[in-house]
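Journal club prep, notes for RB
We'll compare a predicted complex against what the paper describes. Inputs for the pyridoxal-5'-phosphate case:
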Amino acid sequence: MRVYNFNGGPAALPLPVLERAAAEMLDWNGTGMSIMENSHRAKEVVAMAEETQAVLKELLGLGDEWKVLFCQGGASLQFAMIPLNFGQGQVCDYVDTGMWSTKAYQEAQICGAKAHLAASSKAEDYTFIPERYDFSSNPRYVYLTSNNTVRGTQWPSFIQNAPAPLISDMSSDFLSRPVNLENFVLVHAGAQKNVGPAGLTIVLIKPTWAETGQKDLPHMLDYRTYIEHDSMFNTPPVFAIYIAGLTFKWLRDEIGGLAKAEKLNQAKAALLYKTIDDSGGFYQGTAQKASRSLMNVTFRLAQTDLEKTFLSEAKDAGLVGLNGHRSVGGMRASLYNAVNLTAVQALTDFMVEFKNKKG
Ligand SMILES: *Cc1c(COP(=O)(O)O)cnc(C)c1O
């Protein structure tokens, strides 16, 4: 039996995607073998990878100035690749909104960038997205994390009039809403939140920007290598790319695109936040309301000693993955695209019942 999966990542994938992958497991696309057993140079596989890039660009409304890359090493390798390519010896501005942006900032220092904190919500326990920034006078780029998976905060809109191009880690809200990437030059997202299996990292980059990067890097750390070889300089994570492609088509054809996805995500999050806010303090959201994430809903029980019972009874009821990130504790319900309203309804029904029993 499939459970209601609220994992933070790796996370729920759309059922039709899993069913299609299962049906094609032994004989993919008439090749008489699974996609994993095909050469990445086979024409069918190359066509699949190209189509996956095209559908992603279509979903995001991206033009020819953008290139889709399939990288590895997770979002965490991007924390290093970005400063290695663009930040060495240069001032780079970072906005610190939680654990993943802190890691990106620290990695930039290791990689030789003069990383500058333009804003941080650390003093208030990362409960909000800062709206005031102390930018450097001429930074190379401005880096932000669009959705803070651990703390449950999300940028409602992005910085206007930044002093440099924007770069963002969008791992945990990638494709959850339409985004205007006009002021961006690079976006990265680990696949395991909203796209597909871990092991694939999607990078969107403007090749004109990539050209301005450091020239003496090892091939696998240089964005130009991925651009020149269409992400096939070495063996890419073919199976993960294939699942990502199925997810992109599901988003386009069954959900109806990113504006529709956003509407669904808003309805899901609204239902859960309302249940928290209407609980008379029994449940308490941890993020400030204006910064609340549509993807990761973080909350606590006023009676923290009941949290263990909450999690174990939820699990018995088929609601799994509700524990908060191990660095903060409490509860987190991740409502990625593949988590539907029925799942959220089951969760809120459970929460009301639990409160009536224990409150
Ligand atoms: C999960 C996550 C990461 C870490 O990704 P890895 O693929 O494990 O390196 C980084 N940033 C954000 C925003 C995340 O949600």
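Talking point for the session: The chain has two domains: 15-255, 257-358.
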